Amino acid sequence: MKKIFYLFFLISSLNCFTQNLVPNPSFEQFIYCPTGPSDISGCLSWSSYGLSSDYFNPCSTSSDFTTPNNYYGFQYSHSGNAYIGICPFHIQWQNYREFVGAQLTTLFIIGQKYYISFYVNLSGNVFRGITIGINKMGVKFSTIQYSFTNSAPINNAAHFYTDSIITDTAKWTKISGSFIADSAYSYIMIGNFFDDANTDTLNLATTNNNYAYYYIEDVCVSIDSLYCENWLGVKEQNVNKEEITIYPNPCKNELNVKYNNVPNEQITISIINIFGKVVMQAKTQESEYTFNTGKLAKGLYLVKVETGGIILQQRVVKE
């Protein structure tokens, strides 16, 4: 039996007390698959906040930007399948820095304490010259958005950073901390915001030491002190996409999500806008739901179908 389900999931200051304020924190949701360098804009909600940031996803048709094996090295995701990568230090180019950033799901409250965590891994591909480990990897918040050409400032300041030189090429290293907001920040940035003179380095090889390159995963910002400590990111499950049909695409007034086999457990269907916010959501054990999409703004959306973990993500255009 087909049901029409209406539910707008509104993000407010009340329900953010136990939520991650970072959209698409594990980088699993994407607008398009990466095909080459600097394709960070394919990752939903994220973009370059300075120079050539990269996106890695197994959906890529390029072996250089897939996971776990890619141009910069070999590393399994900390959770799910995807991650991003940046160069925060280059021995040949003075103060070369790559940054990534995203708009937070809600403004910071001045005077509120926020807890932060993310994971990094040094790619350590000797053949590519990635044999330098650095410290000062951290997070900075901003009230304005930066871009590829308008880079975030390198002013020897960040809201949180690590003084430890990250050299682990096998395992993911967690970086975590906290700070009290001194402004109504709306953007998060990740990278090394310190110049070469204030960045400590360690050469991991005797030759071919050119630059540092770090993979980044599972970013968390919350006002709950335990949330980021216990949050482990998104775990993906793989299913045959033929099990689920989403139509029509493009859609106008209705969007149908059909599970071709009757689900044996509750499924959650979410429609997510380009800012990573859930705008409609259904929970059901029925084999089909119809969303009334007439009031949705025109544009690109991501439909996520999950049961326990994400089982399908598909882009849908609303006309």
Strand percent estimate: 35-45%
**Helices and strands, in N-to-C order?**
EEEEEEEEEEEEEEEHEEEEEEE
CATH topology name of the largest domain:
Jelly Rolls
Average pLDDT reading: 86
Largest sheet strand order: 2-7-13-10-11
The oligomeric state of the chains shown is: single chain
Shape: globular
In percent, how helical is the residue content? Answer: under 10%
Task: Spell out the CATH superfamily of the largest domain.
Answer: Galactose-binding domain-like
Helix/strand/pairing class, anyone? mainly beta
Number of domains: 2
N- to C-terminal distance:
27 Å
Return residue spans where pLDDT drops below 50 for at least 5 consecutive residues. Answer: 1-18, 235-239
Question: What does this protein structure show overall?
Answer:
With 319 residues, the protein is mainly beta. The protein has two domains: 15-230, Jelly Rolls (Sandwich), CATH 2.60.120.260; 237-318, Immunoglobulin-like (Sandwich), CATH 2.60.40.3080. Helix content is 1%, strand content 39%. It has one helix at residues 227-230, and strands at residues 3-5, 46-50, 54-56, 69-70, 73-74, 83-90, 99-103, 113-122, 132-134, 137-142, 160-161, 173-180, 187-192, 201-203, 211-222, 244-247, 254-259, 267-272, 278-284, 288-292, 299-307, 309-318. It is globular, with a radius of gyration of 20 Å. The two termini are 27 Å apart.
